[in-house]
Specification:
Elements: H1 3-10, H2 22-25, E1 30-35, E2 38-47, E3 52-55, E4 61-69, E5 73-82, E6 85-88, E7 92-93, E8 99-104, E9 112-120, E10 129-137, E11 142-147, E12 152-157, E13 162-171, E14 175-184, H3 190-219
Antiparallel strand pairs: 1-2, 2-14, 3-13, 4-5, 4-8, 5-6, 5-7, 9-10, 9-12, 10-11, 13-14
Length: 220
């Protein structure tokens, strides 16, 4: 049994499935991390072995992401939430890239549920780096791809109830590799409560609309 399958056999309560990782997932590690503002699972990274390791840790959630890119992802910087306050993480990567995008999430109702991309060397004989990134949220919004879709693809979908609360990886001149801290929504955390209340409000509004139309028809 692979390290990932073994680890995720224990972590199923987080809404994660080892079968979702495809051919790139079988050699990745998963472990429970106690730190930051919540218990999380650390997975990955995907990409090359160049650069140095970094780990932002786990937070309440992600508020926004800045990605600088050109022929690859040159750098990434994440804005997190910690107890209702924004926390800006460090920049990971180099100073290259001629395009910058800032992705603002509708936190706390919106969170990241799927990250995919490609990795390969930028120059012949070089170490693989992250060539492209694409992100999706629980509100069915898609951002990217940013960079060039060349090389080995990777895809990281998360089952319902799971979401990304932190980033890890490797970086030097570029973003060499990327991994994640994952957590799970549950009835005891405030984010779950806020999302549930908003969804319930939307459902109540939809339920009221037919009744209003019927009443108007009766008056007519």
């Amino acid at each position: 049994m692979s390290r990932l399958n073994s680890a995720y056999g224990l972590h199923g309560l987080y809404g994660l499935s080892a079968s979702q990782y495809g051919m790139q997932g079988s050699d990745q590690k998963g472990k429970i991390v106690n730190g930051g503002t919540r218990k999380s699972i650390q997975v990955g990274p995907w990409g090359g072995s160049g650069g140095t390791n970094w780990d932002d840790g786990s937070f309440s959630g992600v508020r926004g992401i800045t990605i600088v890119y050109d022929r690859c992802v040159d750098s990434i910087r994440i804005e997190y939430d910690k107890g209702g306050k924004p926390v800006l993480g460090e920049k990971h990567g180099g100073n290259g890239g001629n395009q910058t995008i800032y992705i603002k999430l509708n936190y706390p109702e919106e969170f990241l549920t799927h990250v995919s991309g490609h990795y390969s060397p930028v120059v012949h004989g070089g170490s693989p780096v992250i060539r492209s990134l694409k992100l999706k949220t629980n509100q069915q919004r898609t951002f990217g791809p940013f960079g060039v879709e060349e090389g080995t693809p990777f895809s990281f979908p998360i089952e319902a109830g799971g979401f990304i609360v932190g980033f890890t990886g490797r970086s030097g001149w570029y973003l060499d590799a990327v991994g994640f801290h994952l957590s799970r929504l549950n009835s005891s955390n405030s984010l779950f409560s806020k999302v549930s209340k908003k969804l319930q409000k939307l459902l109540n509004n939809e339920a009221d609309q037919p009744a209003k139309k019927t009443n108007n028809a009766v008056r007519a």
